[in-house]
Amino acid sequence: MANQDPQYIQDTQDWLLKAVIGLNLCPFAKAVHVKEQIRYFVSEATSVESLLQDLASELEHLAETSPEKTDTTLLIHPHVLQDFLDYNEFLDLADSLLEELNLDGELQIASFHPQYQFAGTEVDDITNFTNRSPYPTLHIIREDSIDKAVEAFPEAEAIFETNIATMEKLGLDGWKKLFKR
What we know:
The chain is an alpha+beta fold.
């Protein structure tokens, strides 16, 4: 069951527009946003088990829905896995669920979290902010859509390096100004 609390969705859309699209951290995000092909699902889960149930439902929903209607899903789960290390461990369960549902190779899961930290970085390293969302969020993506996007964007492998340069130029103060209310 989902409580489609508009504040969770609004905060996530704000982050998507200002950071992901605004800073061009993902050059593929703008098109699906403009076409309104992003599904925002707010989970009421308060346990790993209930989040896995919501994830299974959303994986199946996306697999059964035409890409023209919903190309990607952001599963926002503000009440569980607030600690990044717990969240990071959960990602193995999420990948196992993809396999159980026979959806690996069709869908994949990208991860975003307010405390996101890449291995080998310091907590306050600005490059971590490329994956810092307002709430823990699982991004369910169609592999076909990734393939099409990569075909249209031949230097896809350069995105990571470009993002690092963008974030280093922006700096922590610049990031904070993006979200200043």
